Amino acid sequence: MIRARRARIVATLGPASRDRVAELALAGADVFRVNFSHGAYADHARTIAAVREAEAAIGRPLAVLADLQGPKLRLGEFENGAIAIKPGQHLRLDLKSTPGDQTRIGVPHPEVFAALRQGAVVLLDDGKVRLRVRDHGPDFADTEVEAGEALSDHKGLNLPALSIPIPALTDKDRADLNFALKEGVDWVALSFVQRAADMAELRSLVQGRANVLAKIEKPSALEALDEILDLCQAVMVARGDLGVELAPEEVPVVQKQLVRAARLRGLPVIVATQMLESMTHSPTPTRAEASDVAGAVYEGADAVMLSAESAVGAYPLEAVSIMDRIITRVEHDPRWPELMRAEYPVEDADADALVAAARRAAEAASTACLVAFTTTGKTAQRLARERPLQATLALTPNPDTARRMALIWGVEPRVVAEPSDPEELTKVAVDQAVATGLARPGQRVLMLAGLPMGRPGSANILRLAHAPTR
Hints:
By secondary structure, this protein is of the alpha/beta class. It folds into three domains: 8-70 and 168-332, TIM Barrel; 82-158, M1 Pyruvate Kinase, Domain 3; 353-466, Pyruvate kinase, C-terminal domain (Pyruvate Kinase, Chain: A, domain 1, 3-Layer(aba) Sandwich). It is built from 17 helices and 21 strands. It has an eight-stranded parallel β-barrel with strand order 1-2-3-12-13-14-15-16, surrounded by six helices. α1 (21-27) crosses α2. The longest helix has 18 residues, at 41-58.
C-alpha cells in the first residue's frame, strides 16, 4: 500500500479509535500517537498491539509515537469543585494543600513561586483566566484577576515568558518511558522542553531504543532552539500550550520559523493541535481548518497531527480521510513544489554531495522513483530533506528502522533482506519498485546505497537502472 501523497498523518489513538487502527491506516494514518497524559498501561499496551496487528494486516510499516505528559502545572482542588471570579478580584496562590475558596487557590508546585516576578502574568485554564502578580514570596503570590469568570479543580497553569526551574521528566514520565520502551514504541515525544539539557536527559534514558522528538510548546524553548535541535531526531510544533503563552498573532510566525529550522537540518517536523478541531463533534471541518492543514503542507511539514479529533471524537475515520484528501489536493496544485521549496533553499553548500546529485538526477521526467538502501534511516532522511517530488522507497533489513521512517516526508519504508552484492542490490531495488507500483516495467529507478553493505552512514553509490520489461 503506497501513499499518493508526501506529507504524513499522525493520528492520536484513544477510546474512539483504538479498536479501528487498521481502518485509520487504510484511510491515511501513518503514525499513531499514544498520549500518556491519559489512560492506564493496560489500555496503552492494547493500543500498541493493535497498531502492530494493523501493520501486519495491511503490509505497511506503521510507527507508534509515545507522548510523555511532562511537568504539566495544575491547580489544586476547591471546596465545592469550582469558584466564580471577576476582574479586579484579588486571589492568593499558595502551597497549602487545603481546598481553595473565593480568596485563595492551592498550587502544589514550589517551582512556580521560584519563577514568579513582580507584575508577571499567570494564565489558568488554557488562558481563559489571566492573573497579574502584585506581590510574591517563596510560598505565595498575591494576584489580581484581569480576565476570567470561573475556575475549577486541577485546571492548567502557564507562566508566559518565564523559565520554570522544573525538570522536563517527572517520576511519572520516567515510569511511562520505561513501559513504552518495553512495549517497543518507535518514537518518544518529550513535552514542555525548555532547554537542551531536557533532550540530553531523554536521550540518555532511551539509549537508541527509539527515536526522540522535542515538543516545542514553551517560549523559553525558542531561545535555545539550535541547541535543542542538535539533540533531537524530530520536532513538533505543539500549538496548544504554545498558543496559550504566546500572543495569537505570534503563533503562525513561530510555526513557520520552527518548520524552516527543522527542514534546514533535515529533521522531520510535525505541525499539531486543533488542525481539524471541529471534527471532534462535526463530520466535516471548517474552511479555516482545511486552510490550516493546507498551509502546513505548503510549508513542507513532514506531518500534520490529529489529537482529540481521532482520540475521543465522534468522527475519527472521517477526520483522517479528510486530512488525507486535503494533503493530496494541495500536492496536486501545480504551484505546490514552488511554494514548498521557497521555505527551504534547495541549493545548500552543506548538503551531502551524493544526495544533491540524486536530487538533480531525480528531476528528470524519466525517473519513476528513488530507492534508498539504509540501515538506520539516515540516507532516506537526507533524501527527504531535499524534497524530491518522486517517492523515495526506503529499503532496510531492520523493522524498527522501517517503522521510524513512517514519519518522514515522501518516504515509503519496506523491510527486505540485505543484498549481498551490487548486482543483487540493483535487482532488489527494481523488483521492489515494481512490486510496490512506484515504477512500471521499463521505467528508470534511481538508487542510493553504500558499500560495504550494512555499514551505517556509508552511502557512496548512486546508480541508475531500468525496471525489466518482462
